[in-house]
Specification:
The complex is a heterotrimer. Chain A is of the alpha+beta class. Chain A is built from three helices and three strands, in the order H-H-E-H-E-E. Chain A has helices at about 5-15, 20-40, 75-80, and strands at about 65, 85, 90-95. The two termini of chain A are about 40 Å apart. By secondary structure, chain C is of the alpha+beta class. Chain C has three domains: about 5-300, no CATH class; about 305-415, no CATH class; about 425-480, Orthogonal Bundle (Arc Repressor Mutant, subunit A), CATH 1.10.10. Chain C is built from 15 helices and 17 strands. Classes of the chains: A alpha+beta, B alpha/beta, C alpha+beta. Chains in contact: A-B, A-C, B-C.
């Protein structure tokens, strides 16, 4: 088992997903099966290979915007789907630094 | 009178142009088909009011002579495309109340050409799946059934609603998205034509992201010509998407019927899988024969890193997904669970809002990006991806297209593989490399297996050479003489 | 120079590195077309992209890229023609996407260096490790409701430059001078307005202590310090805190802290839960950021004169001292004011007036040179009036006061109030004669106390309301009184 239970809990915390105890074992099992399987990549020699950043090939480089204001100013549209909003703010449980 | 739903997109367009019928008549027939086919569960949201209103508008345009390229043509849209004012759920509980205040570029392009929204189509949750069984709205049923077998089959995934609705003659065409085969595999399972265009051909703006470097929108239709017509109207250069190509958009339809004589077809020997069924090998061989007969040259080629494509994909796609899906936190939109603590709120919201397959992929993605594992998994996969892309670049110096089977099997039974993620992932074995390399590829129905179920062949092309693919696909289509389902058992 | 801090166990050295977050001057955000202006109604300057809505994509702002390159050039830094945008993944209510687009392993600007001038006249080089582009987050307001925080996304997506220094600073003064210098360079370049009150410039300060010659100690990071004064206070406090802990035998825990300006203390941040693992990876929505050397060269040509060059020019062209030049150029606005005032006037005199009267008055009325009530040209004219002996230096101070109150032009003030200098010999002589005549005792005492001559000068000035040409007064007094003695 390459991924132990503590690891699963750590990953779940980072992902902001919680599992019931009985679920954790099933996920741990699945995760291990998949991780063990993808591990076969380790046999590929990639010493001199650079990683792909995007399969989008553009010899002119990345497209850029002009610095003009042409968006925004529609608060209603921004907040209309919010589960909890008031006076155009999004509301979240109090966060203290 | 013959039902208008039996027409293909091209014929329907001709009929409208010749004023054989009105757009409203066309749309009403499709609405009726949609409503009587609910047992397939292909649609999440039906939009008959929008469709009828649009059809009336199209008829006015026909009368005024201001009709556009797809005027009055009803289509279905996968629920991954944001549609303004219409529920866009990604088939997830997480977005089961999300009404976008904006329209995706691809659908907007289609509406601007007169196409009509019939409804939003079911898919695997956040497009993660190969059977449409991970949807919060329940599985889609494949209109095809095996010989003398009542068992319900999956329509493939993730664009299962799209493929089923087209196969069942509910829509004239449908939009899908393809991250690892999500257009081509369901097309193969339902006897339809599905194309994944070159990465960058269609704008991704307004499409709910699964894996940004792999996602691409594409059409599913009943024939190759329809596919080309739909694609042309989906593409545009979109300044709102950095990865949208500014290359000229050809009139793809014109390539239909072009000769393939003298062109070279590569047959990658790495696609011969151990344990591959004879039926798959047979259909592949038939494909070769048809193309050879049409004057194309068949060449054996090697794509040595093929076997690494699937594990490579199952690192990269979940990694990107884990980050893309972080925005679903219950604050600005979507499902939300109240709590007095922000972290509890996040966890409760996401645990309730996401289904198991989505959670699984978020977990894998988080793992392969996490400190200590990044180099071994994510970075390694992106390097292997470079090798896979390089394989294709090299091969395309000597061939024009590559011919492979679309899937390792025909459609399987509902619940048959849903408990075993890995065996489900293996379904994408032939389609995934194409996404990693950003190439265009199509699945065309080539025949039936001994069980009477459709099998598709995949044609992979050079970047931005969808036209070549369409020319070849038309040859296969003509040679295979594939017939759509006759017994509409699902109609109620 | 000795920066060491005395502890119970001997001297300690403070080691400081600073990460400055500088808001780029641009009309629209780094990856969207919504406005960046300060003070708008909440959630109005927010696009679907800034709110992290499903299906939204970033497109980079070309001006923000140019601003980062210009700043890199101003920091004498290596400009990287190939850089990558990464996603920094973490959950926070004011981070709509669940990740911040930033640059991690391959930033747009690499190593650089700036020189800071310290109060004791010494200069010191501070290394720049890197500069990268990133998005700002939104803002949570905590005082609107007892149980909820209110989220405003107006700042979400605003372009920032994070400028990371080497751990080269050794005292609060060095740290403050470094941030001031950095701010000044960006103001000259017009890449950041440097307004710390509005949050356009914030500093994260890494502080550690060690015995001189030892390896680096464990550092603590003080987040989001937003004034030059607080930078000094925060480092002072933090260094003492660490020294006390170590001398008590405790270990320093590496942590993130906040500075509380009211208490003048730093405290550990409460909200840092699970250990951070940001899972950086290249943003698949964006491509590598590339540009040519020619593009950088073209930008280089557009750079304005930077403070170090300007200082050199002030010394050479205006014959000012290095010390005075440094004061003038250390705020772009001051240097601009000085040059405008000195355009048709004696630069050295102007410099004295700016650094002397003007600074002390601005300090008193709590204004900056930008909203100085006296126009630069008027100050230049005032200096000319002194220089060409139209008014006396003493009267000039009165004129200056009136200028400050009314904003009027000095020549008209002098005219209206009859303040011109009296140069007429006979007029002055008659005043002097009268004073000598009326003060025989003082005249007699003069041989014992030659300093009394000053008293006579004062009397003359009093009699002439300060308008008598002081040179003439001195000459005549000298002739008349010293002759007698």
């Amino acid at each position: 088992m390459s991924v132990d239970k503590d690891n699963v809990i750590k990953i779940a915390n980072l992902s902001k997903i919680s599992f019931k105890d009985n679920e954790i074992e099933k996920f741990q099992e699945d995760l291990n099966q998949i991780i063990d399987w993808v591990d076969q990549l380790s046999e590929v020699n990639t010493e001199t290979v650079s990683p792909t950043f995007s399969s989008f090939d553009n010899d002119k480089g990345m497209k850029k915007r002009e610095d003009i204001i042409n968006d925004g100013n529609y608060r209603e549209d921004i907040t209309v789907n919010a589960p909890n909003s008031e006076e155009g703010f999004f509301l979240v449980p109090k966060v203290i630094d | 009178m013959k039902k208008l739903t039996e027409l293909c997109l091209y014929d329907a367009r001709e009929g409208l142009l010749n004023k054989d019928f009105t757009s409203k008549e066309l749309v009403l027939d499709h609405i009726e088909a949609m409503e009587s086919s609910r047992s397939l569960n292909a649609f999440i949201t039906e939009t008959p009011e929008i469709a009828i209103k649009s059809a009336e508008n199209s008829d006015l345009r026909f009368n005024k002579g201001t009709n556009r390229d797809l005027e009055g043509i009803p289509i279905g849209v996968k629920d991954m495309f944001c549609t303004k004012g219409v529920l866009t759920s990604a088939s997830s509980k997480m977005l089961s109340n999300f009404i976008p205040p904006y329209e995706s570029t691809v659908t907007n392009n289609l509406w601007n050409e007169g196409a009509i929204l019939l409804g939003k189509l079911n898919n695997d949750e956040f497009a993660m799946g190969s059977s449409n069984e991970t949807s919060f709205y329940g599985p889609v049923i494949n209109p095809w059934k095996g010989n003398n077998n009542e068992q319900n089959l999956v329509p493939g995934g993730s664009s299962g609603g799209s493929s089923a609705s087209v196969a069942a003659n509910i829509s004239l065409g449908a939009l899908g998205t393809d991250t690892g085969g999500s257009i081509r595999q369901p097309a193969s399972f339902t006897g339809t034509v599905g194309l994944k265009p070159t990465y960058g051909r269609c704008s991704r703006w307004g499409i709910i992201a699964f894996a940004s470097s792999l996602d691409q929108a594409g059409p599913i239709t009943r024939n190759v010509r329809d596919n080309a017509i739909l694609l042309k109207n989906m593409c545009s250069h979109d300044p709102k998407d950095t990865t949208s190509s500014s290359k000229k958009i050809p009139n793809f339809e014109e390539s239909i019927g072009n000769s393939v004589k003298g062109l070279k077809v590569g047959i990658p020997n790495e696609f011969f899988q151990e344990g591959m069924s004879d039926e798959i090998i047979d259909i592949w061989n038939k494909g070769k024969e048809w193309l050879k007969k049409s004057g194309a040259e068949i060449i054996d080629i090697s794509l040595p890193n093929t076997k690494y494509a699937l594990p490579c994909y199952y690192i990269i796609a979940p990694a990107e997904a884990s980050s893309n899906l972080a925005r679903y936190d219950g604050v600005r939109f979507g499902h939300s669970v109240n709590s007095s603590d922000i972290n509890e709120m996040y966890k409760a919201t996401r645990s309730e809002g996401f289904g198991d397959e989505v959670k699984r992929r978020i977990m894998i993605g988080t793992y392969v990006l996490s400190s200590g594992y990044y180099d071994a998994y994510y970075l390694k996969a992106q390097k292997v991806r470079s090798l896979i892309t390089e394989d294709y670049n090299k091969v395309f110096n000597s061939v024009d297209v590559i011919l492979t089977p679309s899937t390792p099997s025909s459609a399987f039974g509902l619940n048959e593989k849903s408990d075993d993620p890995l065996s489900m992932y293996l379904n994408d074995i032939f389609t995934v490399p194409v996404n990693l390399a950003g190439l265009p590829a199509i699945s065309v129905p080539a025949g039936l297996d001994s069980n009477g179920l459709p099998l598709g062949l995949q044609l992979i092309g050079k970047p931005f050479e969808e036209e070549t693919i369409y020319s070849f696909a038309k040859v296969i289509e003509d040679s295979a003489n594939f017939k759509n389902i006759e017994n509409q058992w699902w109609v109620q | 120079m000795n920066n060491l801090v005395k502890g119970n166990t001997g001297d300690w050295e403070i080691v400081i590195g600073i990460e400055v977050h500088a808001q780029i001057i641009s009309n629209s955000k780094l990856f969207s077309g919504s406005s960046t202006s300060f003070g708008a109604d909440h959630n109005t300057q927010v696009s679907f992209v800034d709110a992290g809505m499903p299906g939204m994509l970033p497109v980079i702002n070309s001006v923000c890229v140019e601003q980062a390159i210009k700043t890199g050039l101003g920091l004498n830094a290596k400009i990287n023609n190939f850089s990558i945008f990464d996603r920094k993944n973490y959950f926070y209510p004011d981070l709509p996407q669940g990740y911040q687009i930033s640059q991690f392993e391959q930033p747009i600007v690499g190593n650089g260096m700036i020189t800071i001038d310290l109060d004791n006249g010494e200069s010191k080089n501070i290394g720049i490790e890197r500069l990268h582009l990133e998005q700002d987050a939104g803002k949570s307001l905590h005082d609107q409701h007892p149980s909820y925080s209110f989220v405003d996304l107006n700042r979400s997506g605003v372009a920032l430059m994070e400028i990371v220094s080497m751990p080269d600073m050794r005292s609060p003064e060095e740290a403050q001078t470094y941030v001031k210098k950095l701010r000044n360079i960006m103001k000259y370049l017009q890449t950041c307005d440097g307004n710390m009150e509005e949050g356009s410039l914030r500093a994260d300060i890494n502080v550690s202590v060690r015995k001189p010659g030892d390896d680096l100690g464990t550092r603590c990071e003080i987040k989001n310090v937003n004034s030059i004064k607080f930078i000094g206070q925060a480092i002072d406090y933090e260094a003492k805190r660490q020294i006390n802990l170590i001398e008590k035998g405790d270990l320093i825990e590496q942590q993130t802290r906040l500075f509380d300006p009211k208490k003048g203390q730093t405290r550990s941040m409460r909200s840092k839960e699970d250990s951070h693992d940001y899972r950086y990876f290249p943003d698949p929505d964006l491509l590598p950021l590339t540009f040519t050397d020619e593009f950088v060269d073209e930008l280089k040509k557009t750079l304005p004169e930077l403070p170090d060059i300007r200082k050199k020019r002030f010394i050479e062209d205006y014959d000012l001292s290095s010390y005075d030049s440094n004061i003038l150029v250390s705020e772009k606005e001051t240097a601009d004011y000085f040059e405008a005032a000195a355009e048709n006037s004696n630069p050295k005199l102007v410099c004295n007036w700016v650094i002397g009267e003007l600074f002390s008055v601005l300090n008193k009325i709590n204004k900056t040179i930008e909203d100085c009530p006296i126009k630069a040209e008027d100050l230049g004219e005032l200096v000319n009036l002194i220089d060409n002996e139209t008014i006396t230096g003493r009267i000039a101070k009165d004129v200056f006061e009136i200028m400050l109150d009314t904003g009027e032009n000095p020549a008209s003030i002098v005219d209206a109030n009859n303040m011109k200098q009296v140069n007429d010999l006979s007029e002055i002589e008659s005043v002097i004669d009268k004073i000598i005549e009326n003060n025989p005792d003082q005249v007699n005492a003069l041989s014992e106390k030659p300093n009394l001559i000053g008293w006579f000068v004062g009397q003359v000035m009093k009699e002439t309301q300060g308008k008598a040409n002081p040179k003439t007064v001195n000459e005549i007094l000298g002739k008349k009184l010293l002759k007698k003695g």
